[in-house]
């Protein structure tokens, strides 16, 4: 009896380690660039996220009626050197999304890492959705930029211009106007990455610093002639929930494509009195 139990124990120790056959290696599944894109956009307006868009409208109304826009514009008009500092920020706002998406996508494909590819698509979706959204708003709100050549053609002076909106269809440009696309795109892509990698404090810090920097850049560029400050504030508030929804949604897409536990053989002793020996099985 004792030798038999000893043999069973040694067999379990020798053979009872999980082993995975070569054919059990799971194939890597990559997310797609348009996975759940409509759902991610809708998520930027659902539940509490809607309050960010309401806050953007409220902030614009407050800053225009209390002449905050006007005062900030006049300050940058009187300090044109600050606008020169804003120039590289504006350039970064255009090149940044392209470089960030391209770098992540190339790195993910080169290393065959679905998670990195998912991060690239989170950037792509957040930028595309936000850019389309703010462009539509510019088309229907028709807010003029705070440039001198708009006065007196659109308003008596810059005080009246700061409060002017022209609702309709394409009654203003789609480069300037309300809200700021530069700020919105920057905020959207960085908030998407911050929520795609929720444990990264570096990305959260980058979101705050880069969004604030872009708000300064668009408000100061061209001696304060590119955007009103409320355009920048509205762009950040509206883009944040879209980026957050996209980042979380793409993370869920990537997590669902991860392979489950690998199948493995196991060996265990049979403890039933009528069936002494080994039990061999496989987990799936």
What structural class should be given to the helix and strand makeup? mainly alpha
The helix/strand series, from N terminus to C terminus, equals: HHHHHHHHHHEE
Q: Stretches where pLDDT falls below 50 for ≥5 residues?
A: 10-25
Please give the alpha-carbon distance between the first and last residues: 34 Å
**How many domains comprise the coordinates?**
1
Radius of gyration: 28 Å
Strand order of the largest sheet: 1-2
Apparent shape: elongated
Strand elements, count = 2
* Overall pLDDT score: 87
Helical coverage, percent range: 55-70%
Provide a count of the helices: 10
| Biggest sheet layout | 2 strands, antiparallel
Strand content: under 5%
Structure description:
The chain has 284 residues and is mainly alpha-helical. The chain has one domain. It is 64% helix and 5% strand. The chain contains ten helices and two strands, in the order H-H-H-H-H-H-H-H-H-H-E-E. It has helices spanning 2-15, 37-43, 50-65, 68-78, 80-111, 114-141, 158-162, 181-196, 201-224, 229-256, and strands at 264-270, 277-283. The protein has a two-stranded antiparallel sheet. The longest helix is centred in the middle third of the chain and has 32 residues, at 80-111. It starts with a helix and ends with a strand. The relative contact order is 0.18. The model is unreliable at 10-25 (pLDDT under 50).
